[in-house]
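[agent] plan:
  1. take the single chain provided in the ticket
  2. run structure prediction with default settings
  3. attach structure tokens to the ticket
  4. add a short note for the reviewer (M.T.)
[agent] executing step 1
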Amino acid sequence: MLEDQQDSIAAVSARLKHVRESLGFDKRGFAEGANMSEQAYGAFENGKRELSLQAAKKLRKRYRLSLEFLYYGITDDLPTRISKYL
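[agent] step 2 finished; step 3 output follows
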């Protein structure tokens, strides 16, 4: 499911959760690391809101998650520490 190239809210939220868990973070720690509140991040991971470009850029900057991965599941440009769990 992570590489199915879907940009649906459900697919994006599943990718967010999988990466967060793979890196060993709880929601609060993952959100704070990307300079977001737990509430804001939680809405993206729980599929309550679409991932905004601003939030995606914060995740890209902190965790090196490509926008192609976040929105479409393309894993080509992910760091090895993340892609090895996918």
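[agent] step 4 note for reviewer: DSSP finds six helices and no strands in the chain.
[agent] ticket updated
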